[in-house]
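Render this sequence as a predicted structure.
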Amino acid sequence: MGMGVMKRMSGIIQAKTNKLLDKAEDPRESLDLTYQKQLESLQKVRRSVADVTTAKKRIELQANQLQGQADKLQQQAKAALTQGNEDLAREALSRRAALGEQLADLQSQHDQVAGQEQKLVDTAQKLQSQVDSFRTKKETMKATYTAAEAQTKIGEAVSGISESMSDAGMSMQRAQDKIDGMQARAGAMDELLASGALTDLTNPVDDIQAQLDKASTTSAVDDQLAALKAEVGSGTPPPAELGAAVDAADDHGDQPS
């Protein structure tokens, strides 16, 4: 196995490993999870505000009921005095005084709960502002990460294309070497066939026919040579073209000797 192949395999394994790690530790998912937890915490604070407000309302209802009873006792004490029943009026006022103590206690509790409610409302507002700010930051960070990831993928793609082009160049060079070798071999075969060193199986010629063809060619050349000698001896200008000489030789050869 060549070093180039081993290097590419190592690169592929490393890329797959990095991809698995990146998928397992995607910061965008971590940011979304953190934001979700913040929303859940904010929701708990809001529920607490609602619970405290509910408790405050219950105290107010109790206070209103006691105030109603105190007002009624006040009216009853007045009615008793109108009837001349001072003891009954004193009893009504005594009970009203007891209700007054309860009302004072309820008012104290109401003020305390109202203070807690306001603190929780302030906390919820601050948390809401922080959560909103975090949401903006996380979306910005996610967009930045996505852009960086895209740029990295582009870089990896460019690198992959570059390596592929390098491999393609080597493949093309090997193919060209094969083509050159095949062309050289074909030229050599043609040359050997033309020289007769090899027999062309696609166009077989036996040795007898070859000798007959050679004798026929030699005879034609001898006839042309004799015709040229006759023309030169008689002072006739030589023909301008080989074709004309051949025709003349043929005409001369047709004449009876």
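Summary. The CA atoms of residues 31 and 138 lie 6 Å apart. Residues 207-254 form one domain.
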